[in-house]
Every structure is written in C-alpha cells, then in structure tokens.
Amino acid sequence: MLVFSLSLAACGKGNGGSAANESPSAPDGPAASGGATASGATDGPITINQSLPEKEILSKGPDGENAVSAKTLQLTEEELAKIKAGGYKAAISMHYAGNDWSAAQLKGLKDTFAKMNIEIVATTDANFKAEKQVSDIETILAKKPDILVSIPVDAVSTAGAFKKAASQGVKIVFMDNKAAGLTAGKDYVSVVSADNYGNGVEAAHILAEAIGEEGEVGVIFHDADFFVTKQRTEAFEKTIRDEYPNINIIARGGITGPNDGEKVASAMLTKHPNLKGMFVVWDVPAEGALAAARSAGRTDLAIATIDLGTNVALDIAKGGMIKGLGAQLPYDQGVAEAILAAYSLLGKEAPAYAAVPSLQVNRDNILESWETVYHAEPPAPLRDAAK
After folding, report:
1. What is the pLDDT of residues 36-64, one digit of tens each?
2. Residue 372 belongs to a domain
3. DSSP string, 273-293
4. CA-closest candidate to residue 296, choices 322, 272, 280, 329
5. 350: which of 17, 272, 286, 372 lies 20 to 30 Å off by Cα?
6. Could you read off the pLDDT of 288-334 as tens digits, one per residue?
7. What is the CA radius of gyration of the chain?
8. What is the CATH number of the domain that holds 230?
9. Residue 382 lies in a domain
10. How many CB atoms sit inside 10 A of residue 215's CB?
11. Chain-centroid distance, C-alpha 110
C-alpha cells in the first residue's frame, strides 16, 4: 500500500542505540540554536530551534513508545568536532520530494549535515512507488554510506531493503514511520516525527471555535496503515467528543491518496448538506475539499487540517474557508534526524522515538508561523494576502 505523508534517528557501521507552486528554502540564517548557522561557520552546539513552544508531546511512536522532545537533542562542540573529523557519508531516500514538507525536511538535513562535514552521496525520490524506493536503496548501498535517513513508502514492501542496509552496518534514521520488522537500537537508530497527535488536537480546537462549538462536522481521514496520520484523526475525533458535546461528527470518508480529497468531500457535502465544518487529514486533500465546497456553493463551510502548505496558507491569510491548522515543523525535524544520526556515529544513546512540538496556525499568526515552520521569509503572495 502506498503511504502518503504529508496533510516523519561508536564510529563504524553498526546501528546503535501539498503540492506547492514553489518549494521554500531557508536563508543562510540560524538553522539551529546555540549559534550554529546554515553556512556552518560556527562550531556547535547543534540543536533544533529552542524558541519553539514548550509543549508536552502527545504522540506515541510506531511501537507505542513515549516520545522524547526533539528540543532535548544536542551535539556539543566537542561531539561536533569528532563528527567533522570522521569523513562520514550520508544518503537520503524520500518517499516523495515534490511538496513543501519534503523540501523543508531536505533543507534541514542538508544544512545540518553540512555543519557536521558529512557528505551527502545520494538523495532519491521514490515518487510514492515502493518498488522504486527499493531500487533507490540498492543504488544508495553501492555508494557505501555510513548513514541513511528515509521515510518508507510502504512499511512492509520496503522492509527487506532497509534490513539489508542495516545488515551492512548503515545507521538508519527514519522519518515518521519505520520499516516493518526492524527494531530500534538494533536495526535502526530512531524514528523522528512531528507531534501528530498534538496537531490533531490543535485542529479540533480551531474547527470548534470556527463553528461556534456546535453543529455537524465531517472527517476526511487517511485510509492506510500509517500511524502518524491515524494519530491525527484519532486526536481530532477524541478532542471533539471529550471537549465539545454540542458538536457531532456525522460523516467520515477515507482517502488513499492526496488527490482524493475533492471527490470524498463532494460526496460528503451532497449527503450531508447541513455540515458546518470539516477536518481533513493533511493540506493537499484539504485543497480538494476546498474546491468541492466552492463547487457546491458552500463557502460558509469551515475547514481545519494539518500541514502548512503554500495554498492552504494563502487561504488562511485571506480569511477563507480554511480557518487554521496544526503545523508540522519539517525543517527542525530534518535537523533532529541529522543529530540522531550523529549520536549513532558517536556511540551515544538515542531515543527510539523523538518528536518536534505541535504548532497551532491561524490567520493571526500565519506569517510568523511560516517563518517558524520553514526557517524562511514568507513568500510575497502570502505577505500580500495577509495584509
């Protein structure tokens, strides 16, 4: 099954301890706290953005692990010096590289590996095809990297390729989900994700406020066995049930791909014309729901989602139907993944699961949130829309 994500670780070779119009890129400013810069001019310490909100991480890992906040991860100056002297090589295998989330992850990884003097020998894009990712990993292994950072297209069908990498001593850090049958501390270093449960909670509060805390709502969920998107929907629905007794979830529709949002939303609106609001599991299918609502003449519909893509950001800034969202922090997630890869090279104990905090985004903080998420200035169209 293809898995879509938004709309996520001692010297040697063993494994220890939205479709956007334009992908954002970070400037050569501070990419991590402690004085380290994207140009790599300053020697450590390296951390993710320490100005992120202090929040309890609500998500669990793929095997039910409690999360360690990515804000606690750090490479000291001494540790960084050891890594820089090692002459290490890394590779990145993406499930899909054509959206804002992926572009920001890659930027965070590349900036941080550059600070560590770690050469990136391959960056691949499977374009949501499991067989392509398996082939990509075979090509990567021929380059003999010390590190592989990857998000599996499909946890089961790619597992053999990741097991082969682990058996060859490659230190694997996973984004968002692990390959099936692999064990933390033995086959891979860590899984790093956003606090997807926390972002689902944020989306619930946004939608509830937008509809006056009463009325009928629908849910568009990801109909796939992918724990991070399951957590988003579970968190949204539980928060509505527990905290908003006058809101009723009367419709649920599943999507298997990012382009299914319009079709599922259209059918939902036809069957339930009194819907006041809709939760959509990530930003690209939310764009489809937005199109369906416009076609149905339902511009009064309130929508909440997850992930700060360009198009949903523009709608929020304009005061449109998308009232807000819970945002992942993909740049900082990439920084955290690189730090954990360095932990394994140093023989330093790594958590099995780490997550970056959730972030609520609405019209009032849209520009500030863009800078926080992407470590970049908001694009001119977004700045203009927010005026």
Report:
1. 433 334 567 999 999 998 889 999 999 99
2. yes
3. TT--EEEESSHHHHHHHHHHH
4. 272
5. 372
6. 999 999 999 999 999 999 999 999 999 999 999 999 999 999 999 99
7. 20
8. 3.40.50.2300
9. yes
10. 18
11. 16
